[in-house]
Structure formats: structure tokens, C-alpha cells
Amino acid sequence: MRAAVIDRHGPPQCITLRELPVPTPGPDEVLVRVAFGSVNHVDTFVRSGAWRTPLAFPFVVGRDAVGTVVEAGDAAAAEFRAGDEVWTSSLGYDGRDGALAELVRVPRARLYRCPAGLPASELVALAHPASTAWLALFRHGHLRAGMRVLVVGGGGNVGWSAVHLAVAAGAVVVTTCGTDDAFDLDRAGATPVDRAARLDRSTLGGAVDLVVDTAGRNDLEAYLDVLAPGGRVVLLAGMATRASFPVGALYLNAATVTGFAISQASVEDLALAARHVVDAVERTGLRPRRLSSVPLELVADAHARLERGEVRGKVVVAVAAHHPPAPRTTPIEGARAVPT
């Protein structure tokens, strides 16, 4: 089978396309024929070694996959059968080989059924961002109906999902964005604020109960200033940033600042997020906003463009030879990168 593989940590050019043996599923694993995968920022961190996680070389890169069950191990056979359409968003780290191969084995607890009516290329584009957004908002942000939420970076992949999920939950959503994103975010039910504007209560229309920073801005001074008493800040991007931390504003306001990485999420939390992502797709019409596609042969190029800041939106990978690339919905060459 063909797979996108690295033999060491390093630059995008380390990724090569090669033939590997077909993996054999264990008793509680499922063998999946992959139709589409994706490229995430975290995949570049794993490949480069910027984020260290247990892996064995040669290592298949990629985290997300949508495809069809080929075979299920004995313990997984009651839940999955050959021909089932399935997805996963947690391969490619913590000792598990990645998703960008024609055939992958997936632990049963990390595999979910596809929602009806959503193309595989769109589902794989949502898998990582929407799961991240749900966990940030609900598991770590304790979001409830009626709360006022600031989503920093609503035009990005995670931010776009966070806006939809928060609005669907009955929250009042304000989001920072560029001018070219404002119209779509307004239609999604959020109040857009120019990302260059000063973040204060006047700009946001009052205090907020929750700040979710999906863009890596990490302006803790501004966030704690606009936070209502007992409010929460969830940080999940901007690995290299260094923030000024106003300790007095934190404890005098009984505020909480939480760091969150989906790579640390439990199997149970990932499954819970997956159910809510499927619900959002079916109930609210959540869809990826910008989508472009590359074949498996160009995964290294996609990593390089992502690191150079030339990708806006989501890059999906057409893995199976019989699957043509997903239609491109917006140009990505030369576009500004939006952190996910």
C-alpha cells in the first residue's frame, strides 16, 4: 500500500511516498481503507519534532481519516462491519501510526460512524477543527446557553467551528476576524469585530463569560480585562508565543485560564466530541468554509505551504487512487495562514 512516511524528524522534504505492508488489525482494531485525510498544523509539529510524541520510524504522518471498513478484529466485529463508512481524528501520535496511507488500522474506541449526506472530503476537513472547538468550548470552557463568548480568530478552521457550535448552544458570540470573514461570521450568528481593534468592553459590547483563543493571539491582559467575574479563558494555539500575565486581574476576578491541546484529550472525550460534531453537521448544517485538495504525492508540499503561511482554510488529501481530489472552493496559493 502507498503511504506518506518519514524516517526522521525534519523539514517537509522528509516526507516521502512509499510502499508499506498492509497493517494487520489487532483484536480491538479496525482496518480502514482511507478515502481522504487532511493536513493540520499539529501534523507539522509532529513531523518536525517541535512537539515530541512517541512514534516509531518509518512513521506514517497525518491525524484524520475518512474511509471504509475492510476488516474488524474479533473484539470490534460487533460494532463495525466491512463496508461501514467511518472516520477518526486521533491517529499519528502517542505511538499510533498516522492516517495518510491507503490502509490504516484504527483502535475501535477511536473510530466513529460517518453522518449521512456529508461528503468524505468535507467531513475530514471538519474532524480535527470541530472536535477541538467542541472540547475547548464545553469540556474546558464550561459553555452554557446565555453566556457571552469571545472567539478569537473566527475566520480560522477551529474558530469557524467554534462560532457555529457556540451559537447552536444558545450563547451570544462575538468573534475577532478579518474584513473578508465578517460577512460569513455575521450570517453564522456571531458579532464580528475587526481583529486589529482594541479588545475592551466597549468594543465587545460588554463583558464576556468565556474567551476561546483559536488564533494564538494569547493577549491575556486584554482577555482578563474583558472577562466577567468567574469567567474563563481557554488557550489552545500559539505554541511559541510569550504572554504577559496580569496575576492580580486573575485572582481578584476569580478568573480561570486553561491551556488545552486536543492531543491530550482522553479517548472518552474524543468520542464525546465526535458525537457532538456529527450532531452539529446533521442539526446545524456545519460545513467547512474553505477547502482545497492535494493527492497523496503532494503531502510534503502541503506541509511546506502550511509552514510558509500560504494556506488559508483546510487542505485535504485524496488518498485512495479512485477518489479524485475534492473540488477547490477557494484559492490557497499565496493566502495568509489561519492557525488551527
Topology diagram in text:
Elements: E1 2-6, E2 16-19, E3 29-39, H1 41-48, E4 59-60, E5 65-72, E6 85-88, E7 103-107, E8 112-113, H2 120-140, E9 148-152, H3 157-168, E10 172-177, H4 179-187, E11 191-194, H5 201-204, E12 208-213, H6 220-226, E13 227-235, H7 247-252, E14 256-259, H8 267-284, E15 291-295, H9 299-307, E16 314-318
Parallel strand pairs: 9-10, 9-12, 10-11, 12-13, 13-14, 15-16
Antiparallel strand pairs: 1-2, 1-4, 3-5, 3-7, 3-16, 5-6, 6-8
Helix pairs in contact: 2-3, 2-8
Summarize this entry quickly.
The chain is α/β, with parallel strands linked by helices and 340 residues long. Helices cover 28% and strands 25% of the residues.
Mean pLDDT: 93
Largest sheet: 7 strands, mixed
Q: Output the CATH homologous superfamily of the largest domain.
A: Medium-chain alcohol dehydrogenases, catalytic domain
Assembly state (oligomeric): single chain
Question: Nearest-angstrom radius of gyration?
Answer: 20 Å
What gross morphology would you assign? Answer: globular
How many strand units? 16
| Helical content class | 25-40%
Task: Determine and state the CATH class of the largest domain.
Answer: Alpha Beta
pLDDT under 50 segments (min length 5)? Answer: 327-340
Q: Class by helix and strand content? A: alpha/beta
